[in-house]
Amino acid sequence: MKKTLIIALAILASASFNTAFAGKKDKKKVKTTVETVAPVQLKSSTDTVSYTAGMVFTGGLVSYLQQQMNVDTAYMADFVRGFKEAVKAASDPKAKAYIAGMQIADQIKSRMLPNLKKDFTGTPDSITDATLYRGFTDALQQDTTIFTVKKAESVFQNLHARNKAVKDEALKAPGRTFLAENAKKEGVITTPSGLQYKVLVKGEGEVPTKTDKVQVHYEGRLIDGTVFDASRRHGDKPSTFRADQVIKGWTEALTMMPVGSKWQLFIPEELAYGSREQGQIKPYSTLIFDVELLGIEK
Fold it and tell me: CA-based angle 233:236:241, to the nearest 5?
């Protein structure tokens, strides 16, 4: 699995940010060493435009530091010191590399690592921070004592796939068990695709085609009874859409239902959202819908 690290150095955006730091008093009292600097002297228009541009660049920066970078603004003197060091590093290859290492470390720790740990949640294996960092630095220093980078990629991909398969099976199991038991219940019909339905009200009207626009009222639930959506949450009017512009289980059912019908649908994950997560709907969820077909718009 290959990932690209994108480091955003240009956090000082433009005057479109409208949050100012001036005048705000931080309740925290932290001792910091403040560098003594000589008062600025603006001797030309160029000096003035450059100085004011620098001040404008700080617009919204403080809120960005707090909200996006989790920086405590009680340490602004330290931020300024780091900023100055980074500016100097532009002409010092060694310092530039050191600062880049810190930035990459922050990106891995705050973004990539949490996502990877989430991938392995609920699997036989897990991710250990210190060991991951060691693998990262060994690769950069060309230490092939255990693996070459190419071999490591192959091993990781195989382990990731194995763990994902175990996790997927665990997520699918409750739905499969539910459908197996549900198929035995009176009035439940199972189609060759695996869709199950029960006729609550038998309609006598026309049966829609895939390209027909239908009017329906519906309620969707998980197998634990959690209601995740309902047409009446969006108003009293029925929902309107083409029969082939919904999940496969719906399309199959709608093209069998006469207008005036009300059916209860039991839709396996492969006819619903599969591995995708949709709000309250977790990957590989079996879904239950009460669907009332009110009409067809030609």
Answer: 80
